[in-house]
Amino acid sequence: MAEAIPxxxxxxxxxxxxxxxxxxxxxxxxxxxxxxxxxxxxxxxxPLVQAGQESASAARDYLLRHQRNRSFAFSIGDPAAxxxxxxxxxxxxxxxxxxxxLTEIFAQMDxxxxxxxxxxxxxxxxxxxxIGEHFExxxxxxxxxxxxxxxxxxIWIGSATRIAAHNDFPDNLACCAVGRRRFTLFxxxxxxxxxxxxxxxxxxxxxxxMVDFHGPDFxxxxxxxxxxxxxxxxxxxxxxxxxxxxxxxxxVEGLDPFNILVNYWWRESPRWMGQPQxxxxxxxxxxxxxxxxxxxxxxxxxxxxxxxxxxxxxSHIPExxxxxxxxxxxxxxxxxxxxxxxxxxx
Length: 346
Fold this sequence. Notes:
This protein is α+β, with helices and mostly antiparallel strands. The protein has helices at 26-30, 47-54, 56-66, 102-114, 131-134, 138-141, 224-229, 276-286, 292-308, 330-344; strands spanning 13-14, 37-39, 72-77, 84-85, 95-100, 123-130, 152-158, 161-166, 171-178, 181-186, 232-236, 241-244, 249-254, 259-266. The strands form two sheets. Strands 2-12-9-14-7-6-3-5 form an eight-stranded antiparallel beta sheet. A six-stranded mixed beta sheet has the order 1-11-10-13-8-4. Helix 2 (47-54) packs antiparallel against helix 3 (56-66). The radius of gyration is 22 Å and the shape is globular.
């Protein structure tokens, strides 16, 4: 039975759906894509999806047959939070982190489903588990054609969960493998209307919206109404995939007692360029609290060297002497990173 859709979702625009007759053309479809889209049933023939259609237990058994001898990181959430992995009243986390064998973790989840555990059952969530490191042959048996992209392939396993709206720098193709998933998406520029929490104290490394999507407080978060006008909504069945472009905000819910998502992250820029978030954090430390007149000077310098970066920045410098002002490659980025580390340690 489909779960009732909370009120704020019912009037949202739907994420567009695209038909793809030839799955081998997915890589070309993703090239230059700037808007989210859904492809229904693209991975419906995966053995993992087929196992999940049989039962949650069959899906767990399938994964256990492929597990490597590894310890898995997972989160245990407060049963009273209703699957929402978030802050507690003191702005710590309302869940704790643990490690264990996959067999043991699944035994906890299976006990909750079968009623073997006494009292309310905690939320169990394995987030962004590297598939190649933790599973043998899982990728080969459940393939997808993404062209020549160098992807980070992860699996997300859990009971019913609510993951606050956040964004990621890489592009993201998320495949709903077991259970149903609900996605609420916002364009990158909507960050001002999502009431983001701290940048350095986060549930999973990215700033999150502090709005409870199941009960938004519009008195505290009035601009969230503006965000909702730009929101897109989707519910995925097992076998469906959704493309989430870089920096799009996404609120994600696992709707069933047992859920599995497989996702692929990639970036169009080379990895040696590093993470822009690090530059933002450094700017907060070194620029944000300067006097206004000094901040204006640095704003102009950033425009000149970073955002505009026109030819006149370097035209007067011999090409062989332009150093970091010239085109960067992996070697040059390595030297710059070493320079920054030395400077930060002074």
